[in-house]
Specification:
Layout lengths: L3 H6 L1 H8 L7 H40 L3 H36 L20 E6 L12 H7 L3 E2 H7 L6 E2 L1 H20 L3 E2 L5 E2 L1 H7 L11 E2 L4 E3 L4 H6 L5 E3 L5 E10 L18 E11 L4 H19 L3 E5 L11 E9 L4 E10 L3 H6 L2 E3 L5 E3 L1 E9 H11 L1 E2 L2 E3 L5 H4 L3 E2 L1
Helix pairs in contact: 3-4, 5-12
Length: 423
């Protein structure tokens, strides 16, 4: 959520910046500024009313003490009216504050200056590519066919139990999943990230804190009986560990990692591009989250990108990095880099990670601040990244490592799996 004072000070700059998102900010920023003026005026009236009420209350006590009962009773009537006025003003103030908050929730984050212009994912900017794309033998199979051939993932059984998009992993497929999770967590903790196990359902306040609510696209599963939401990513519960916290400057940076299943409705997704593991309603992911001082957050973002690069190098998967354009960047992000692995059997790139800097946008919603060495409180910066999402990494391994002998396991995963081939 944007800071109102910053909107007032940078209105024209923000309007121009948000055009990168194809977002016409001028009308809504004018509404924000007008509402804030109402808020400040109402707050001033309330403060004056309460001050007069307190002043009269003290005078009433003195008048009764001096035997001036008639004057005291007149002031009591005035005080009673002031109390009524203060109640009305408090209600008005709360209503204005709620209107202002709801309006701010509809404004996306200001994109970083380096975010390229563009309407959609077609306009994302490739900034890096590494790894040789393997040459597969004739008759190479897509991962959903390999899964059936080697009996390691059962998509039909998932449909029977739940529905489409909920696969069942079996035998060596399940062990490979577990190996990837352990490997990712070990890489992250070795890099200084503290591991957390967090709830897989969150309350409404947590959803608002990280920006998943309001859920404009209806992508979250809602447990209506308890008003809880299944998490779309570990980013939500992990970042909310620090909601309503005042940290000390010396506490930063805070680096967290955690494994969770993730749940997404993926409403409207269909077609050949979402076959198999390409898009699921439930999938596993290991996440990294950082809480940083503002001046350090972009160096931290670069460090997260290098960290994910290191994992993909060890897995020996061909990958590329995209800088997302204004039309494709997430609502809460200021700058996002997407990692994509090349799926040789499908002859296409598959997104496996997004690494983002939210600057102070989430922190303002979360009321996540730190006290600087100068004694002043300021908003922290939050960052997060997939390290990594399992389905498409697994798809890349199955397709790129297939051989006539079977699916070779990447060397770095063999100690975790306990086997060298799926055959």
């Amino acid at each position: 959520m944007l800071v109102v004072q910053n909107i007032i000070a940078n209105k024209d700059k923000y309007i121009k910046a948000l055009t990168k998102r194809n977002f016409d900010a001028a009308p809504i920023l004018d509404q924000v500024i007008a509402l804030d003026e109402d808020r400040r005026a109402t707050q001033a009236k309330l403060d004056n009313t309460l001050a007069d009420s307190n002043k009269f209350s003290k005078e009433i006590g003195m008048l009764f003490k001096n035997g001036e009962q008639q004057k005291a009773n007149l002031l009591k009537e005035k005080t009673a009216q002031l109390k009524e006025n203060s109640k009305e003003l408090s209600t008005q103030l709360a209503d204005i504050q709620e209107q202002l908050a709801q309006l701010l929730y509809t404004i996306p984050n200001i994109p970083n200056d380096t975010v390229p212009d563009g309407q959609s994912e077609e306009d994302n900017e490739e900034i890096y590519q590494e790894g040789d794309i393997p040459k597969l033998e004739d008759g190479a199979l897509a991962h959903w066919e390999l899964a059936k051939k080697y009996d390691i993932i059962d998509f039909e059984l998932g449909v029977k139990i739940t529905g489409a998009g909920f696969p069942v992993y079996k035998g060596k497929g399940a062990r490979l999943q577990r190996a990837l999770i352990s490997y990712f967590l070990d890489k992250n903790t070795a890099a200084g990230y503290k591991e957390y196990q967090v709830p897989h359902l969150v309350n409404e306040a947590s959803g608002f804190g990280t920006g998943q609510l309001p859920d404009k696209e209806g992508q979250m599963y809602h447990v209506t009986g308890d008003d809880l939401y299944l998490i779309p990513t570990a980013e939500v519960p992990v970042t909310n560990l620090f909601r309503d916290e005042l940290l000390q400057e010396g506490d930063l940076p805070i680096c967290c990692t955690g494994y969770t299943p993730c749940f997404r409705r993926e409403a409207g997704s269909y077609g050949a591009h979402v076959r198999g593991l390409n898009r699921l309603h439930q999938f596993d992911k290991v996440e990294i989250v950082r809480i940083e001082k503002p001046e350090n957050s972009y160096a931290a973002l670069d460090g997260m990108v290098e960290h994910v690069k290191g994992i993909l190098r060890e897995l020996k998967l061909p990958y590329r990095i995209l800088r997302l354009c204004g039309g494709d960047i997430g609502f809460t992000s200021a700058l996002t880099f997407d990692f994509e692995v090349f799926s040789t059997a499908q002859d296409r790139w598959l997104e496996i990670s997004s690494v983002s800097n939210f600057e102070s946008y989430q922190a303002n919603r979360l009321k996540l601040r730190f006290k600087g060495n100068n004694g002043k409180n300021q908003l922290a910066h939050t960052l997060n990244g997939s390290s990594l999402a399992l389905p498409r990494v697994l798809a890349g391994i199955l397709e790129n490592y297939q051989t006539p002998k079977g699916i070779k396991i990447p060397d770095v995963l063999v100690p975790y799996c306990g086997f060298e081939y799926i055959d």
